[in-house]
Design a protein that fits this description.
Blueprint (H helix, E strand, L loop, with lengths): L2 H37 L2 H15 L4 E3 L2 H7 L3 E3 L1 E5 L2 E10 L4 E5 L4 E6 L6 E2 L4 E6 L1 H42 L4 H8 L8 H27 L4 H58 L16 E5 L4 E6 L6 E2 L4 E6 L3 E9 H4 L9 E5 L8 E8 L9 E9 L10 E7 L4 E7 L4 E3 L2 E7 L4 E6 L1 E5 L3 E6 L6 E3 L3 H13 L1
Antiparallel strand pairs: 1-21, 2-24, 3-18, 4-13, 4-17, 5-12, 6-8, 6-11, 7-10, 8-9, 10-12, 13-16, 14-15, 14-17, 15-16, 18-23, 19-20, 20-21, 22-23
């Protein structure tokens, strides 16, 4: 075949192929144009489908079978108006109660004869912790005994003078009635009259005799047996002896009065000296000792260090037979049944806070989950700390079960404003996911609708709902977390 024929056939085949390719491209372009004009782009269609599904809200509804419902045991609460306090949580620490945490120090210098407790021991009020031998204590006790002896001596003298005074009053009463000397001696022979007995009896005897002689001469002078001169002389003797007796009586009464005043002064001074000696001893011991009189010899210098209150020995610093100086620390004693809660309130927050001494506040201890604690405000500081610009708050918290320890970190809820009445739901009803707050509203016995909400003021029980809910709607409280898990699982599918 000629070469020209072959080339002609090849050219025709190539042209047919190019025409077929152009037809295919044209058909494809036309088909694409038709699809765009009638159906829109695929991306737009997909978005419309997704938006349609989201707008329907069906993806936020959780429907559970009967078995899951029975196991979950959901609980609901109606949306209602509740009193809600706005709370502000501040960090804090537990510390020893200052009134129940002390260092037991040596009141005097001496030697530790015995140490009876160790760290961790629980002691009762008045229990002996240690024994010190101190010469200073011995001297103080000896001074108490000496001053007390002086006081007792003066007291005995005063008591005796009171007895003598009473007996003399009775004696003078009988003498004024002119009772015979023999009868007087018989009645007052056993009575205490002190040094005045001889003086009184002598003067009364003279007066009694003068009275007898005068009476006898009076009848005899009338008969002339005794001259009038003798009778008058006897009358004069009677007046002299009577005046002497009266003077003696007055002198004795006055002397006794002076003696009583002197003894009263001595007794008061002796009593003061006893009190001063006891106070000095009490200052050294730290308590009032009642058995000082029974101490003798070596026991005078021994001092028992006793627990001022019931608690636990936290630390011990010295051992038996060590020499101690005054004010050396022996033990640290603490009662941890009551502790302090220490927190700082920023000065900028103080004006907005509604808190005062005696108020109850909630305390959370992260180290003890599942336990709720309540403390009572003890006092609020008056001075702002320079380093932290905060006010100290101190509250007392009960620790009778011993769960709390000094030094633990705590969170303290402080009320920031007055109580308000708002639309609220239980704290456990409000859930969080991707910085959004929502609740589950019960649709029917099997279905629950996720509903986004806007929250406001809250406390440990209620959360204010400012948007998203209406009064009377049933909101899931118990089991809300389970519904959140079901919602997240459904989203993954």
């Amino acid at each position: 075949m000629p070469e020209h024929s072959v080339n002609t056939k090849a050219s025709l085949g190539s042209m047919k192929s190019q025409v077929m390719a152009g037809v295919v491209v044209s058909i494809t372009v036309l088909a694409g144009w038709y699809f765009v004009q009638n159906l829109g782009t695929p991306t737009t269609a997909v978005n419309e489908i997704i938006e349609s599904e989201e707008s329907s809200g069906l993806s936020d509804v959780i429907t559970l079978p009967e078995g899951k419902l029975a196991k979950a045991n959901f609980g609901t609460e109606l949306v209602e108006m509740q009193d809600v306090d706005h709370m502000h949580t501040v960090p804090g620490r537990l510390a020893y109660d200052e009134a129940l945490h002390i260092e037991v120090k040596a009141p005097v210098s001496g030697v530790l004869l015995d140490v009876l407790v160790k760290p961790g021991d629980v002691v009762q009020t008045g229990q002996v912790l240690a024994v010190i031998n101190s010469s200073e204590i011995g001297q103080a006790r000896a001074a108490v005994l000496n001053e007390d002896a002086k006081y007792q001596l003066t007291l005995n003298r005063t008591t005796r003078l009171q007895e003598v005074t009473q007996n003399l009053e009775n004696l003078f009463e009988r003498l004024d009635k002119g009772v015979a000397l023999g009868e007087i001696e018989k009645q007052f022979n056993e009575k205490t009259l002190g040094t005045y007995r001889e003086q009184i009896m002598s003067a009364y005897s003279e007066r009694f005799l003068a009275n007898q002689l005068y009476s006898a001469s009076e009848s005899l002078s009338e008969s002339g047996a005794v001259s009038m001169k003798v009778h008058l002389e006897r009358g004069n003797d009677l007046h002299v002896t009577d005046a002497h007796f009266r003077s003696m009586q007055e002198s004795i009464v006055y002397a006794i009065k002076l003696k009583k005043q002197e003894l009263d002064v001595e007794l008061a001074e002796a009593e003061r000296q006893v009190m001063i000696a006891k106070k000095h001893l009490q200052t050294l011991l730290g308590f009032n000792e009642d058995n000082t009189k029974s101490m003798t010899g070596d026991s005078l210098s021994k001092m028992e260090i006793c627990a001022p209150f019931a608690g636990t020995i936290e630390s011990r610093f010295l051992a038996r037979l060590e020499r101690v100086r005054q004010s050396d620390s022996l033990f640290v004693l603490a009662n941890t049944q009551s502790l302090y809660v220490l927190a700082d309130i920023r000065e900028n927050d103080w004006s907005a806070m509604s808190i005062q001494a005696g108020q109850q506040i909630a305390v959370e201890v992260p180290a003890i989950p599942g336990h709720s604690f309540t403390a009572k405000v003890h006092y609020i500081g008056r001075v702002v700390a320079i380093d932290s610009n905060s006010l100290p708050l101190v509250a007392t918290i009960k620790n009778t079960d011993g769960l709390l320890r000094p030094g633990m970190f705590v969170r303290v809820e402080i009320p920031m404003a007055e109580t308000v009445n708002v639309v609220a739901v239980p704290q456990e009803s409000v859930l969080q996911h991707e910085n959004e707050s929502f609740v589950f509203v019960k649709v029917n016995n099997h279905s629950f609708q996720r509903t986004d909400v806007t929250t406001g003021t809250s406390n440990d029980q209620w959360v204010e709902i400012t948007e998203g809910l209406e009064l009377g709607q049933p909101v899931v409280s118990r089991g809300a977390v389970l519904l959140k898990s079901e919602l997240l699982l459904a989203g993954e599918e």
